[in-house]
Write a structure and sequence with these properties.
By secondary structure, the protein is of the alpha/beta class. 36% of the residues lie in helices and 23% in strands. It has an eight-stranded antiparallel sheet, covered by helices on one side. It has a seven-stranded antiparallel sheet with strand order 5-6-7-8-12-13-14. It has a five-stranded parallel sheet with strand order 17-16-18-19-20, sandwiched between helices. It binds 5-amino-5-deoxy-1-O-phosphono-D-mannitol.
């Protein structure tokens, strides 16, 4: 949601912090700011808009040298995205500077109290309240770590706070509750970041923090406590990707790079998950086989693209395991009093592992004694940490705000989970499972073939760059693909785009069809069931009403050809696995169309990569 960086060491903090912010800018780009400790004081600059505005301001009016600093990129929650509301925020006397990610829920009450006691607050943010409280506590204790503990005890809600004290030049103190924060462990220097991208250029050794912890970094030391000041431990880990993964590598957008990384990402997601003969080995699933055999219901939760991965998973998991499976938006889940027992498996899908809606949903599920399994891409993030088990997707860092390789690898993880459950519960024979695994192993090559033909999709995108509305139709596992195709276009091109189940068309949405309206149609493979024929009927119906039919169909599908204005050919794959290949042209389409419209594909308006507020 917001990006946070902290540094103490012997380098110029301004350079380290700005570099870190550049790598975290995908988390929020409404404003950016920096605070440095210099000669007993805080010096700070902050600007509305993208990081480039801050950099320009610093160039025109340079900051003094400093080796201790903090920085922030904002996704606005409280108060407009202007200079005043930008972080860092200072306390009453300007002795402390604070950056914040999250929402302080009791800020209105705290603000009232502060104002009653003579504190004049300058911004509309909840963060400034924390800065004032921290400074009051600092005046009393004289110690920033103690002050942070005191301040945190007064705060309700979700927050990562990072602070510096102008009178304490070699210390940065941070705290976290339900918002992400990791420590980067260097030699004679230490770092803080919302995620490891903030410091990956300097170190790949990291410390994961628990909830309600305060961390103090100096050049040579890292100390962790709880909010009451008791000593606590972080969990050390090595980051298994390097700087090149966080760079564009010659592509114009991170998103395009990430689309083209998908053959490798899918292969990595499959790596080591079976014995070569198709016997699945999901060592990370720390739920015993007996417990898995006892499951009588699966509930899959996630938001946005992760939710669509869950919709695909439902088709596969129910088919392979015969376990009833529900898919639910994480933010709706706990408010409808869902029926959960200790025989329910809740599968939480999240690329970032930090989505607040999903996190709150899993906490609720665990309180109801359900088992929670996370499907996650981000090592050390909160959702896997608070789950009973995790399947990591191994996609590598996803920086483009629109999820691409995150989605494909979530699908792989869901398929693996479904097959593993079928194996453990004996609902599929070993050779049946091995046959699906064999098909999964072909996916990297299939995806590569689609990417090799990207130009034909780009051409279509350029032709349609003026479209005001685009529809997407699918059936069965192709329905979530339609939803995902529409979401990509909405996020990136800001045009009306909707996904429908093709069978639903005649119940209302067909009224939207008008002359020339582009409609993507995801055609199921030509199997023995009737899905394929039904989809062709839907295509005929919309074409008769003037739609421009953009058909995604498997190679050799001659039946659909007469009704397609444009055909995008997909490799021949089993029906349940088709979402992996069918999604890729829609990603390419949205990326290229938005590029042609002159939009910032990596940082679409109003969005942030991970939504760490509810
Ligand atoms: O990090 P998560 O997978 O939990 O994120 C969930 C959604 O916020 C995310 O998929 C969002 O919809 C993307 N911008 C889609 O491209």
């Amino acid at each position: 949601m917001c990006g946070i960086v902290g540094y103490v060491g012997d380098k110029q903090a301004e350079i380290v912090v700005i570099e870190g912010l550049r790598r975290l800018e995908y988390r929020g780009y409404d404003s950016a700011g920096i605070a440095l400790v210099n000669d007993g004081d805080i010096v700070s600059d902050k600007r509305a808009g993208k990081l480039a505005n801050l950099e320009k301001a610093i160039k025109e009016s340079p900051l003094p040298p400093s080796t201790t600093g903090i920085g922030h990129t904002r996704w606005a929650t409280h108060g407009a995205p202007n200079d005043v509301n930008a972080h860092p925020h200072l306390g009453r006397t300007g002795r402390v500077a604070v950056v914040h990610n999250g929402i302080i829920e009791n800020f209105a009450k705290l603000r009232e109290e502060l104002e009653r006691t003579g504190h004049g607050l300058r911004s509309e943010t909840d963060t400034e309240v924390a800065a004032h409280l921290l400074e009051v506590a600092l005046d009393e204790s004289g110690n920033l770590t103690t002050a942070m503990q005191v301040a945190c005890r007064q705060l309700e809600g979700t927050f990562t706070l990072v602070a510096v004290d102008g009178q304490d030049p070699d210390r940065v103190v941070a705290a976290r509750r339900n918002s992400p924060l990791v420590v980067g462990l260097g030699e004679g220097e230490n770092f803080l970041g919302s995620d490891v991208a903030a410091f990956i250029e300097h170190t790949r050794e990291a410390l994961e923090l628990g909830q309600d912890q305060v961390v103090t970094i100096t050049r040579d030391d890292v100390q962790v406590t709880d909010f009451d000041g008791n000593r606590a431990e972080g969990k050390h880990y090595h980051v298994d990707w390097d700087l090149s993964a966080a760079e564009k590598d010659g592509y114009d957008w991170f998103m395009r790079k990430e689309i083209f990384e998908q053959p490798r990402a899918v292969a990595d997601a499959l790596l080591g998950r079976h014995d070569g003969a198709g016997l699945l080995q999901l060592d990370e699933v720390r739920i015993t086989e007996d417990e898995l055999r006892d499951i009588d219901k699966i509930v899959i939760i996630g938001c946005g693209t992760a939710n669509y991965a869950g919709l695909v998973a439902k088709y596969a998991i129910e088919h392979w395991t015969r376990i009833p499976c529900e898919v639910e938006l994480a933010h709706e889940f706990r408010y409808r009093d869902p029926i959960l027992t200790r025989h329910t498996l809740v599968v939480a899908i999240s690329q970032s592992g930090e989505t607040a809606d999903t996190l709150m949903a899993i906490r609720y599920a665990r309180r109801q004694r359900a088992k929670v399994l996370a499907i996650c891409n981000t090592n050390g993030s909160t959702i896997p940490r608070e789950s009973d088990a995790v399947i990591y997707t191994h996609a590598g860092p996803e920086i483009g705000v629109a999820s691409t390789k995150g989605f494909l690898t979530q699908l792989i993880a869901c398929y693996l989970l479904g097959l593993y459950l079928a194996q453990v519960r004996g609902t599929k024979y070993g050779d049946e499972i091995a046959a699906v695994v064999h098909e999964l192993e072909k996916m990297p090559a299939h995806v590569q073939r689609i990417l090799d033909d990207a130009e034909s999709v780009y051409k279509l995108a350029r032709q349609l760059a003026g479209a005001r509305s685009v529809l997407f139709l699918g059936r069965h596992a192709g329905f979530p693909v339609a939803l995902e195709g529409a979401l990509k276009l909405k996020e990136l091109a800001y045009i009306h785009a909707e996904g429908f189940a093709a069978g639903e068309l005649k119940h209302g949405p067909i009224a939207l069809i008008e002359e020339g309206l582009p409609v993507f149609c995801v055609v199921p493979p030509q199997g023995r069931d009737q899905l394929h024929a039904k989809m062709i009927s839907a295509i005929q119906e919309i074409r008769a009403r003037g739609a421009q039919t953009l058909v995604l169909a498997e190679e050799g599908d001659d039946e659909v050809a007469p009704y397609a204005d444009v055909t995008i050919t997909l490799p021949v794959v089993p029906t349940l696995l088709q979402p992996i290949v069918a999604t890729v042209p829609l990603q390419l389409f949205a990326c290229e169309l938005a590029t042609n419209m002159g939009h910032d594909v990596d940082q679409p308006r109003n969005l942030a990569k991970s939504v760490t507020v509810e």
